[in-house]
């Protein structure tokens, strides 16, 4: 282990080849089952994955869709958002969070994030609420959940819907509950580089509300609950059966509750053992962004921008240094 940590060999940010090798046989068998059945559109693997992921998240309903972007858009559509409405989103997020709002005709209203964790700042949400505000989209970043108690209290006060953008938070916990079960709707991405990634695009929506679940099932399938009967203008946004089969294998093998698969060559070591007790990154005497008290699912390790120039010119191996909770010997790790 020490030889690996001392190596100067660059570690890729995402190493899907290394991730694939130990599960290749299971993946190929899962794909083979789909090929044998030829149920490529909303096939058996999709419904099984939806059931398994819903149970995992503690949500009554899960609906597979084509991407995380579509998950957000369809959630907005299902909640009836449209022209003249406003939706509060954090200023620090991937563009799809705001795109999903804009595509409905509603207006995204940006609210700043907290410096300590890069998550939406609840103290600034209230001042952004207007009579046009209809929803809040808290974004869970780097496997760390937003302050959902504070967000939920504001939403309840103003009768707003809450859409979780959980594209970086598969398996994360907040107050003992999983991301995706903390708002009216939860939206996930299965982009290949995620903690739970497909071999292409994929997404999913979770909700406890049967009416929202049914509306998304119709919207994802060209606005149709019955073949060739189109109730409204929808999308062709179904989670592919082949991708669902792959996700089922990876979800079972990665066990997101505790030992997710590494995206780097140190495959056998649970990342949680490396990052537990760290202020996410404590490098060269500087701290990164803080972990949540419970359920941080370490999707990315990251550095603050002020380290950029130092790291750019650094020739010695870069090391993540534990600051609490771990023995000092053998538990630091090259950054990835």
Give the % helix: 25-40%
Query: Rough shape?
Result: globular
Q: How confident is the prediction overall: mean pLDDT?
A: 81
CA(first)-CA(last) distance: 16 Å
Largest β sheet strand count, sense and barrel closure: 7 strands, mixed
Low-confidence stretches: 256-293, 319-336
How many β-strand runs?
Answer: 15
Task: Going across the biggest sheet, name each strand in turn.
Answer: 1-9-8-5-4-2-3
CATH topology of the domain at 21-254: Aspartate Aminotransferase, domain 2
Which value, in Å, is the CA radius of gyration?
21 Å
Q: Could you say what the CATH architecture of the domain at 21-254 is?
A: 3-Layer(aba) Sandwich
CATH superfamily assignment of the domain at 21-254? Type I PLP-dependent aspartate aminotransferase-like (Major domain)
Count the DSSP helices.
12
Order of H and E elements? HHHHEHEHEHEHEEEEEHEEHHEEHEE
Q: Which structural class matches the secondary elements?
A: alpha/beta
């Amino acid at each position: 282990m020490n030889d690996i940590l001392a190596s100067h060999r660059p570690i890729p940010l995402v190493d899907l080849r290394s991730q694939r090798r130990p599960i290749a046989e299971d993946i190929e068998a899962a794909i083979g089952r789909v090929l044998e059945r030829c149920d490529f559109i909303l096939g058996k693997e999709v419904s099984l994955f939806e059931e398994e992921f819903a149970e995992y998240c503690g949500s009554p309903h899960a609906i597979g869709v084509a991407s995380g972007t579509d998950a957000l858009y369809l959630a907005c559509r299902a909640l009836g958002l449209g022209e003249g409405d406003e939706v509060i989103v954090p200023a620090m997020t991937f563009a799809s969070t705001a795109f999903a709002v804009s595509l409905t005709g509603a207006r995204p209203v940006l609210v700043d994030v907290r410096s300590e964790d890069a998550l939406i700042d609840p103290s600034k949400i209230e001042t952004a609420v207007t009579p046009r505000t209809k929803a809040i989209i808290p974004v869970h970043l780097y496997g760390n959940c937003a302050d959902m108690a504070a967000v939920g209290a504001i939403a309840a006060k103003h009768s707003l819907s809450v859409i979780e953008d959980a594209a970086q938070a598969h398996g994360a916990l907040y107050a003992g509950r999983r991301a995706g079960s903390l708002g009216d709707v939860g939206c996930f991405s299965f982009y290949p580089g995620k903690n739970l990634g497909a071999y292409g695009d994929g997404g999913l929506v979770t909700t406890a509300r049967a009416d929202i679940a049914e509306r998304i099932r119709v919207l994802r399938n060209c606005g149709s609950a019955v073949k060739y009967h189109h109730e409204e203008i929808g999308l062709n946004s179904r989670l592919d059966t082949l991708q669902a089969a792959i996700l089922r294998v990876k979800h079972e093998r990665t066990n997101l509750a505790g030992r997710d698969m590494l995206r780097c060559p140190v495959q056998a070591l649970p990342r949680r053992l490396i990052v537990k007790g760290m202020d996410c990154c404590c490098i060269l005497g500087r701290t990164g962004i803080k972990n949540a008290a419970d359920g941080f699912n370490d999707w990315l390790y990251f550095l603050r921008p002020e380290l950029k120039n130092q790291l750019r010119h650094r020739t010695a191996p870069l090391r993540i240094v534990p600051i609490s909770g771990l023995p000092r010997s053998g538990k630091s790790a090259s950054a990835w």
